[in-house]
Write a structure and sequence with these properties.
Layout lengths: L3 H4 L26 H11 L4 H17 L10 H13 L5 H18 L5 H5 L15 H8 L4 H13 L3 H5 L6 E2 L4 E4 L8 E4 L5 H21 L10 H4 L14 E7 L6 E5 L2 H14 L8 H14 L4 H8 L4 H4 L1 H8 L7 H5 L3
Antiparallel strand pairs: 1-2, 2-3, 4-5
Helix pairs in contact: 2-3, 3-5, 4-5, 8-13, 13-16
Length: about 350
């Protein structure tokens, strides 16, 4: 996410970075303040916590950019000027630009209840097609060998199943089925569930990880701690489920955390930033100069399956793509990789 602190360090209409200021026209009741109304509507529509944080971030940025004017006092001209400033002065990416636009449209349409012609007339920058970074099998092997402990299991799980990092970190013990050799991915991208394979070679390490997690679960039970966060209203429907082993994280955090929405202290799962830093260090140590991230393991999973002859529809289902055209990006990598297409230079100057 683009940093609001950095965003307003050099902005001409910036305000000092700090706690969100009271906005003109807001009443004193916290739930009636602009950002409170925004959060309430996002939660009512079941948006994810990450989307909530991003939208609050951009609405606050818009207000500070405008010199603390209330968004109700602004319209198309100010929104366009703000988005132009992000693109021309801050040089944000297309995805960041679109995210800021989506946040402001949500504010005006869902919070203020406005459906005005200028909202549809706003130009949306188009994403450019980018080929994913894909590592060779030997490179993946070299990177995976540099992990240990829970990070080693997590890295192998990402490559072995094609899961996104958030899907793997939010994995619950009940969703690992050793009998059928499958893992159920709950509430993936778009809120969809899917089933992926459980690699046989990962079973011993995954069972060891579950034993470590079980030790933390037992310690939490003895200490009378609050268990783990539950989705939606399941905590009220099943008050004891959050403290059960079935709902415990496969990759629990060693320390306790405070839920940003409820304020309750819970056992959270591992943080994605921690693993991202570890992966970056492992890639550098393995001599990988390309910009590899944990998501690269998902790209490698798909590409290596296709190289092995797996049907693209099967890969699509394993990845959780709604449209096979999204999965087709990996076939573009294969079209020229590994000598699939011979350069005319090789015919002219044989190696």
């Amino acid at each position: 996410m683009y940093s609001i602190e950095r965003c307003f360090t050099h902005g001409a209409a910036s305000a000092p970075v700090g706690p969100a200021p009271a906005l003109p026209g807001d009443s004193g009741a916290p739930q009636q303040r602009l950002l409170g109304q925004l959060r309430e509507q996002l939660r009512y529509l079941h948006y994810s916590l990450r989307t909530e944080e991003a939208y609050v971030h951009w609405v606050r940025a818009f207000v500070r950019w405008s010199g603390l004017r209330h968004p109700r006092q602004m319209g198309a001209a100010e929104v366009q000027a703000f988005l132009a400033w992000l693109a021309t002065e801050r040089h944000v990416s297309v995805s960041t630009h679109r995210q800021a636009l989506a946040a402001l449209l949500f504010l005006y349409q869902k919070v203020f209840g406005q459906q005005l012609p200028w909202m549809q007339a706003l130009e949306r920058p188009q994403r450019k097609a980018r080929l994913p970074v894909v590592l060779a099998v030997a490179e993946v092997r070299a990177v995976l060998a540099l992990f240990d402990g829970a990070h080693a299991v997590l890295a192998q799980l990402l490559y072995g199943t094609g899961m996104r990092i958030t899907e793997a970190l939010q994995l619950r013990t009940k969703d690992v089925d050793f009998e059928r050799s499958v893992i159920v991915v709950r509430c993936g991208k778009g809120g969809k569930d899917r089933v992926v394979m459980l690699p046989a070679s990962l079973v011993p390490a995954l069972k060891t990880q579950l034993r470590r997690a079980h030790g933390l679960w037992l310690a939490d039970g003895r200490a009378g701690r609050g268990g783990v966060q539950m989705p939606d209203a399941l905590q009220r429907k099943y008050p004891r489920a959050g403290s059960s082993w079935a709902w415990f994280w496969v990759f629990p955090q060693a320390t306790l955390s405070v839920d940003p929405r409820s304020g309750v202290q819970h056992r959270h799962h591992l943080y994605d930033q921690t693993f991202q830093r570890a992966f970056r260090q492992a890639a550098l140590a393995a001599g990988i100069t390309r910009p590899a991230t944990p998501h690269t393991l998902r790209h490698c999973f798909a590409t290596h399956l296709l190289q092995a002859g797996t049907d693209i529809r099967t890969v699509q289902k394993l990845l959780g793509h709604s449209d096979v055209s999204t999965t087709m990006i990996y076939t573009h990598v294969l079209e020229v990789a590994g000598g699939a297409v011979r350069s005319p230079l090789d015919a002219l100057l044989p190696a």
